[in-house]
Amino acid sequence: MLKMESVHKVFNYGKVNENHALNGIDLELKDGDFVTIIGSNGAGKSTVLNLVAGTYLPDYGKITINGIDVSNWPSHKRAPFVGRVFQDPLMGTAAEMTIEENLSLAYKRGQKRGLKLGISKNRRDEFRELLSWLDLGLEDRLDDQVKLLSGGQRQALTLLMATLGKPEILLLDEHTAALDPKTAEQIIELTRRIVEKNRLTVLMVTHNMKLALEMGNRTIMMDKGKIILDLQGKEREEMTINDLVRKFSEKSGQELTDDRVLLAKD
Q1: Is 174 left (phi over 0), alpha (psi -120 to 50) or beta?
Q2: Is the Cα dihedral 259, 36, 94, 149 positive or negative?
Q3: pLDDT tens digits for 45-71?
Q4: What is the layout of strands, in order, in the sheet containing 226-232?
Q5: 175-203: pLDDT as tens digits
Q6: Are 206 and 244 in contact (CB under 8 A)?
Q7: Looking at the domain 2-81+167-263, which fold is it?
Q8: Tens of pLDDT along 250-260?
Q9: Among 96, 207, 235, 236, which one is most buried in terms of CB atoms within 10 A?
């Protein structure tokens, strides 16, 4: 479903602050894989997502989605294939537009759109049914502006919008990090339900090691723009958080010192 071959990304090339964000990444996801990505700050986690989404283009290497070479495609051209949820709940929706207007935009992602949203009665009924599945009461608030929603409600709506067209791959960029613990748990459970229902292929960045080992079927750890650990199967099932910290030290040759990762161990 997704293949990255010898992908490199350098920022500020030739300058004093030159940054080799990715150094020859090789990564392959099969249809239905749910891969979590863990690593310290600056490891290259979000850069991987940005390259898959087309926000950045690789300097070297090749990216294919479902067998199609998208290496040089900008983000708008990849829109039919890729859904994404960001850390900030404000980023995935248009605040001044209503819930149904946001859903209508998401429904037409990757299609040619005119000035009219064209929300028919049938489409509105479909939106109500989708929203009722979230169990947040949003199906009765179609005409409410999105800015009136709480952070958790807005992130739930963003998750629904990102998966409306059943994208080839769903990118989750620390999508619960800005939420309080209780709301974050609700969004994680909703994520599980939506992914299972739509049988999606997922790449999820997180700083939470416990979550990285519990979600999905595979965990990769990154450091300095490289994948240093790829856990799956029995090895992943038996891996503890302390084992993960020890593995990081073994593979990277240094202690894990990122406070965000260490504080999210429990």
Answers
A1: left
A2: negative
A3: 999 999 999 999 999 999 999 999 999
A4: 82-85, 169-173, 202-205, 34-39, 218-223, 226-232
A5: 998 888 888 898 999 999 999 988 999 99
A6: no
A7: Rossmann fold (3.40.50)
A8: 877 777 665 55
A9: 207
